[in-house]
């Protein structure tokens, strides 16, 4: 589109004023108002008619004949309670339940590594933080192909559950990233 040779937009005309005849018409017609007044009057009449009925006694009291109760024949007495055929309640009270629980297989002992550092001072700092929680950590130095590493480990643990318990203690103290491995 060529903006340089573009024509100017046409002038806008002001909006037209409303017609005087339209302004004379009421917003609500007379029959809507009449209908609303009739509904309100009917509702008031209904409330007034209901309100008096619950408090007033009946205006006319006419004697009503009550039929005489006829003597009922004497019923036979109830039969005796039958004897229970099931005696499992007494039998179960005196029984002992024996459950065969298989022993859990104990896997290899576990260790938990909470950090691996290049500097021994960083490893000592992590070990001190763990000691403040109440757990005992060790520092193992390993020399690998990519240099010397100082690992902070906890354990050995008999099973994974004991290691998880200590890991949750560490997480509550904001020490995260500890991993549980098999003991080497």
TrEMBL record:
Lineage per the UniProt record: Bacteria, Pseudomonadati, Pseudomonadota, Gammaproteobacteria, Alteromonadales
Residue intervals of the SPOR domain: 104-184
Record bears the keyword Disulfide bond: no
Pfam families for this protein: SPOR (PF05036)
Transmembrane segment boundaries: 27-48
GO biological process, one term: cell division
Positions of the UniProt region annotated as Disordered: 1-22, 57-80
Protein name in UniProt: Cell division protein FtsN
Family annotation (Gene3D superfamilies): Sporulation related repeat
Keywords: Cell cycle, Cell division, Membrane, Transmembrane, Transmembrane helix
Residue stretches of biased makeup (Low complexity): 63-77
Gene Ontology molecular function: any one: peptidoglycan binding
